[in-house]
Protein 1
Amino acid sequence: MSVIPNNHVATSISSSSCTFLGQHKLSTTIRTKNVWLPAKYTGICKCVATPEQTAYTTKVSRNFNIGKLQAGYLFPEVARRKTAHLLKYPDAQVISLGIGDTTEPIPEVITSAMAKKAYALSTREGYSGYGAEQGEKPLRAAICSEYYANLGIEADDVFVSDGAKCDISRLQVVFGSNVTIAVQDPSYPAYVDSSVIMGQTGQYQKDVEKFSNIEYMRCTPENGFFPDLSTVSRTDIIFFCSPNNPTGAAASREQLTQLVQFAKKNGSIIVYDSAYAMYMSDDYPKSIFEIPGAKEVAIETASFSKYAGFTGVRLGWTVIPKDLLFSDGFPVAKDFNRIVCTCFNGASNISQAGGLACLTPEGLEAMQEVIGFYKENTKIIMETFISLGFKVYGGKNAPYVWIHFPGQSSWDVFSEILEKTHVVTTPGSGFGPGGEGFVRVSAFGHRENVVEACRRFKQLYK
Ligand SMILES: Cc1ncc(COP(=O)(O)O)c(C=O)c1O
């Protein structure tokens, strides 16, 4: 790796690198081949392709839609900045409360089931190869009865997967390039980026920091982080995440009823991301299928990642009710099944053994303990920022604290916190223009690191 001058931040920007960096005016280094250039020589962090010159190029043109992406995916960009910071301060005790990756060990009741499955694979009796693409029946049944009991969902509506993010992309493949989408603004970046890649959008509009042809549903403290649907244009697909990443806000029953009615009125499909449902403290719906009529307009995607520490193991699921039909009456689930069979060969059998263990009484208790640990972290972070006089949102129903820095650029705040406290956060603008002026602090961390980070925040903002 090149040696980076001390006063520069290495962003290692390759082709199509930075929606989120676009407005960032800090001292930034742009790498063209192996040369590190301070941003002042290139203007502010310009989002231009800088292809390496090679002796040979193929005759294959680059996917035009991928070329529209203005940014490296947000979290790799945050990770790159952390790496650059470590190069600058090799002795710094950097604490990461940024990316939202889990840190606590997977409970043994779950790993022992996976170990048993792994060992069984080395016996004739216990070996299994490709499994059902949709997931093993007992796991589909266990997910159905644990999370969707009495909601009219059946085990064969549940498709087990290698994670919610992967399912979001597979759903986009099902929808194709001719649909329009709406997203909460701010929102988890996978919805917008997969939409761009599928060709559902126009170009990135630098002035408003949005892609054309996407409906950005503004979620702010003023509207309680629930969009004013009377101002939202009709789209085919509505991505909606509750509890939300990054704001931590969860939608109430009344709000979700409005959303379902809105979708029904417009003939839209909701893709409801409930990856954090088990973090909910308020008595709000944990599934969109708790709302009457949702089965005709909604898909739900969920994950073991943040419940059981499965971010690396990889296991999630998507529910597509039989009642959900395309305009020609064809069941959406049948097309999803086709994509799953074509693009995916089913989740790992070891992961699925872990998933089944998660849903035993002991496993559920163990997951609640993991979640409780992170919720305690969330409380510590919330209390810290509240005591410092900040307006703080989220936290109660999700492992994210959404902190307002009015009038400041999110990337500037991110950089200042990193520079002065060696703590990695996530800049709110990385989740969409509605996140500008906010920073997300994740509660995924070892307790001593969270406590230490909060001590440093108190020093910085006292
Ligand atoms: C809202 C949301 N959906 C989906 C995911 C991805 O989940 P998985 O690890 O199951 O792919 C995340 C991960 O951070 C998330 O925040």
Protein 2
Amino acid sequence: MTLQTPNIAVRVVRIEQASPLIKRFTLQAADGGPLPAFSGGSHVIVQMPTASGLIHNAYSLLSSPFQLQQYQIAVRREEASRGGSAFMHEHLAEGDILQISPPNNLFALHASSGRQILIAGGIGITPFMSQMEELQASGAAFALHYAFRSREQAAFVDELTARYGEHCHFYDAAKGEQCNVAGLLQQMTGQDHVYVCGPQSLIQAVQAAGEAQGIPPARLHWEQFAASTQGGEAFTVVLARSGREIRVEGEQSILQAIEQDGSVAVDCLCREGVCGTCEVAIVQGEAEHRDQYLSEEEKAAQKSLLICVSRARTSRLVLDL
Ligand code: FES
């Protein structure tokens, strides 16, 4: 890869089935020492040596920021997995060693004298678990609104209830329960912040409700799990500095193809098109932008693209790498 920061070797010390589709992994430093400090909402990038090459996925840390002898992550088994979640679910065993990045936080809590309103959909519950540790410890006012398809499919409901009690509100779609996002935002006061993590439809509902109600964008925060990398046509990326040509398959991102090739290192933090770290200049060709970072003007200018999510409109894309 590609990460410019040194990786951390961790041992998988425990694997638990948190729901039919979600496993929780407990990781400890391979050298037995404490792991780097992190804040609620942080993620790490896990390297997965699959049969088709090295895959890197970002996972939120759901363990306590006050307990650095271990990290915990949760991974949902994705039907359309290109190998990452399948590797974690089917090939990883207790005792195995993994390489992970140091924690980064692109979804941090904002200091506020008001309430912190956390809205989770499905596996989007994970960043809130470390955030709630912080909120509980600081005595902050907060509420979790956690929506899921069914109680059987939902992870961590019992432990959230046991730990945070009346702070938690659950919405079981199988029972016809729905989280009234607009209603929640209507109750916000001037100092409250709202955070949402989950499927794009949930994030869009919060964004639309916030816009309709005139809530300042600085008080709305979101983290999207499934980046819009639904794939597309295969194309060729040319690394301008070496002339090397790399095929990007239909279900691959440019970043993944470059990582598998291994000839050049690229920085990346979120792998979701939101942080801007992986921005690369376009030398020739046109990008199909899929990120949430560049402005519409920057996208139209076709001077650069974010290679973790964006693709090519042309059969060849020459990049300044
Ligand atoms: S790694 Fe964050 S935008 Fe690409």
Protein 3
Amino acid sequence: MSEFAINEIFQSVQGEGSHTGVPSIFVRFQGCPVGCPWCDTQHTWITDKKDTIPILELATKRQEAPTHAIFNSDTLLAEFTRRGYTAKHIVITGGEPCMHDLLPLTTALVATGFSVQIETSGTFPVRVHDDVFVTVSPKINMPGKYPILAEALLRADEIKHAIAMQKHIDELDTLLASVELTQQPVIFLQPISQQARATDLAIKTCIARNWRLSLQTHKFIGIE
Ligand code: SF4
């Protein structure tokens, strides 16, 4: 059975994209080589064995740290039950979860009756169950030098692009022009760090193109 390094598990409300407002169990994977300078989860980048902690300790972890526990699909489902979680939607995020083959894990989660969403940078193949809702947040021209894969864009149910300036919208345009999308994903623009200028630009562009605005609503109300 596949095992995964998980940085944190928590229950909250999805704050971004199409599922905004949906009660969700977040499963944050450890490990990401993409290197976005503005990444707000830099503690997930490196997976080092010395940072492995027991599953029970993960529940009491309070600060953002690279510590992580190793799970498989059985122990993950058991942990949801042990914590008494009630949400029916699971968000697999990171880090970059698509560094792993997630087909067995997502198949087990879907078979248990959960709806499953995955958040990925689009830099790795998306190996998940067909019913999984895929959010590609393309991290273009980042220091890790990973190209955005056409196959990831083709699998996307929504494309959620973080922007701070016009250059980021231009980069998205170039990316979208490079691939013939067979299903038309919903496109969101999400201002980086709630900056006022970025928010203004995102609103104007969304109105002009009939795209959607995604705000990190969890940050506005101070929840995880
Ligand atoms: S892909 Fe996500 S986790 Fe990785 S560096 Fe970029 S924002 Fe951070």
